[in-house]
User: Which sequence fits this backbone?
C-alpha cells in the first residue's frame, strides 16, 4: 500500500512551507499529492523534493474538485499519513464593499473544500496519521471589516477540533488546527482592494515560523490547536477574558475606525 501526504494550497505561502517541511519527514512517504489552482507553480515543486509528486491543478472552491480527490483516493487506496489543508483567502473590506459572489466563493474555499477534503481522506487516514487545518487567530473573535473571513476560520477551528476526536476514535489519527497571526504571504495580494481600510498589524510572522511551531506542537499528543508567538498567545488569552463587544471596540480603535 502506498503511503502519501496531501497538501492543498501547496503553491505558495504556508502551504508551500508545509510542503517543503515534508522533506524532513519523508521517511515512509511514497508520494506527495499537491493541490492548487496553478499547474505551473505546482510543477515547479518537483525540483524542491526527492519525493515523487502527483500534481492536481484544482480550484478547490469548485464543488467538483472534491470528486476528483475522492476518485483519486479510491483508485490508489493509499494510506494518508498527512493531510494538510492550507488553501484559503480573505478580504479586508466591509461586507457591503464585496460582491456576494466573492464572499460566497470565500466560504466555499475556506469551509466547504475543507469538509470535502477531510471527508474524502477520512477512510484512508493511516494510524498515527495527521490532519493539519489552517485556521487563523481571526477564528477566536468577530472582526469587523474581515467579517466573512473570520467567520470561515471560526468554522475551521470548531470543525477541526471536533474532527480530532472522531479521527482518534475511528482511525487512531488526529487533527491539529493552526491559528496563525498576521503572516507574510501572498494572502495580502488578494485581501487588499481599493476600498481596504484594514492596514494596521500588531506583528508580522514568517510562514516558516508557523510551520516549525506546528510540527513542535504535534509532539504534544493531546494538543489540538497550535498558536505561534507571544503576541498571538497574548491575544488568544485576552479574547477569552473580555467580552467580544469590547474586543471589537479595541480592534476598531487600532484601525482608527468608528
Assistant:
Amino acid at each position: 500500500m502506498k503511503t502519501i501526504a496531501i497538501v492543498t494550497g501547496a503553491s505558495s505561502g504556508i502551504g508551500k512551507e508545509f510542503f517543503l517541511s515534508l522533506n524532513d519527514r519523508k521517511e515512509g512517504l511514497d508520494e506527495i499529492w499537491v493541490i492548487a489552482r496553478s499547474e505551473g507553480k505546482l510543477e515547479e515543486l518537483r525540483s524542491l523534493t526527492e519525493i515523487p509528486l502527483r500534481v492536481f491543478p484544482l480550484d478547490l472552491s469548485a464543488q467538483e474538485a472534491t470528486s476528483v480527490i475522492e476518485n483519486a483516493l479510491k483508485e490508489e487506496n493509499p494510506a494518508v499519513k498527512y493531510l494538510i489543508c492550507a488553501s484559503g483567502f480573505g478580504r479586508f473590506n466591509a461586507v457591503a464593499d464585496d460582491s456576494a459572489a466573492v464572499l460566497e466563493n470565500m466560504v466555499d474555499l475556506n469551509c466547504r473544500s475543507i469538509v470535502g477534503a477531510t471527508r474524502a481522506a477520512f477512510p484512508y487516514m493511516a494510524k498515527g496519521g495527521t490532519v493539519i487545518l489552517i485556521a487563523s487567530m481571526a477564528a477566536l473573535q468577530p472582526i469587523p471589516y474581515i467579517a466573512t473571513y473570520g467567520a470561515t476560520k471560526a468554522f475551521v477551528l470548531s470543525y477541526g477540533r471536533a474532527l480530532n476526536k472522531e479521527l482518534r476514535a475511528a482511525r487512531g489519527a488526529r487533527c491539529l488546527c493552526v491559528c496563525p497571526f498576521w503572516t507574510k504571504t501572498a494572502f495580502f495580494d488578494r485581501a487588499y482592494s481599493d476600498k481596504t481600510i484594514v492596514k494596521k498589524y500588531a506583528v508580522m510572522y514568517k510562514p516558516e515560523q508557523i510551520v516549525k511551531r506546528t510540527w513542535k506542537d504535534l509532539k504534544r499528543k493531546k494538543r489540538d490547536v497550535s498558536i505561534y508567538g507571544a503576541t498571538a498567545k497574548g491575544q488568544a488569552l485576552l479574547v477569552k477574558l473580555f467580552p467580544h463587544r469590547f474586543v471589537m471596540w479595541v480592534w476598531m480603535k487600532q484601525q482608527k475606525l468608528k
In short: The chain has a mean pLDDT of 93.
